[in-house]
Amino acid sequence: MAELIDGKALAAEIRQAAALRVKSLNERGKTVGLAVIIVGNDPASRVYVNNKKKACAEVGIESFEYALSEDTTQDELLALIEKLNHDDRVDGILCQLPLPKHLNADAVIDSISPDKDVDGFHAVNVGRLSLNKQGMRPCTPAGVMRMLQSKGIEVEGKHCVVIGRSNIVGKPAAVMLINAGATVTVCNSKTKNLSEITRQADILIAAVGRPGFVTADMVKDGAVVIDVGINRDENGKLCGDVDFDTVKEKASYITPVPGGVGPMTIAELIENTVLSAELKA
Ligand code: GUN
């Protein structure tokens, strides 16, 4: 029976530490601010944005929300980001993804000043991560690494299998694991003989976005299983990519959904925003 890695509790600790750093900046006359841009009416994005704003308020970060209509043009969005790049009250800029299809997300991300790119999605920050240099790190994989660390789970020398190749999670997670000395295999939902590969994983990271995708037969006895998925099952209940009830019987450690990686993503966003303010101060 696996031990749970409690992301909710760990995230609360990270926010508490961040709140002290915000207080220290405030005492030196510096406020900390995060601009949050949301375009259109995606209900999941609205929930994520509300959770991010709530976490900001809790640690003393000012959040500035820009809720733009679905028909916002690329030029309007770029003009807003340009204004925020030069706004001293703003230490971090986050544009919630996905964007409506008529907008070019890559161009939007690359218009954000790399120093305010608290998502760590800008090509400059992706390059810094790839070269293992200081920079803003994508929040979800940074949260995953912190969860492993919190349990003293060694990464060096381990075989880590990542299912998912997104720019937000799969790819940066793979690079972070490489930087930490792991042997890394990156798969996706179409990988041939997927379960043969996942069964070799000492650490298995599921970021496919399909409920119950990872079943017990895909997991080696004693493996560490990290579930990045946030899905709804047929009853509308929040669930991950991992079939939790059966996989927990085989794994040594497992992360729950909800209360696992999700809260860690927001805690890392808070930490990136505080770091950006500290670097500027
Ligand atoms: N959409 C899903 N995850 C994320 C994230 O971490 N940041 C942003 N900006 N959008 C997302």
Task: Briefly summarize what is shown.
This protein is an alpha/beta fold and 281 residues long. It contains 10 helices and 11 strands. The protein has helices at 7-27, 43-59, 74-85, 105-111, 123-130, 139-150, 170-179, 194-198, 244-247, 261-280, and strands at 3-4, 33-39, 62-68, 92-95, 159-163, 183-187, 203-206, 224-227, 231-232, 238-239, 253-254.
Task: Please specify the SSE layout and strand pairing.
Elements lengths: L2 E2 L2 H21 L5 E7 L3 H17 L2 E7 L5 H12 L6 E4 L9 H7 L11 H8 L8 H12 L8 E5 L6 H10 L3 E5 L6 H5 L4 E4 L17 E4 L3 E2 L5 E2 L4 H4 L5 E2 L6 H20 L1
Parallel strand pairs: 1-11, 2-3, 2-4, 5-6, 5-7, 7-8, 8-11
Antiparallel strand pairs: 9-10
Bound molecules: guanine (GUN).
The site of guanine has 9 residues, from strand 4 and helix 6.
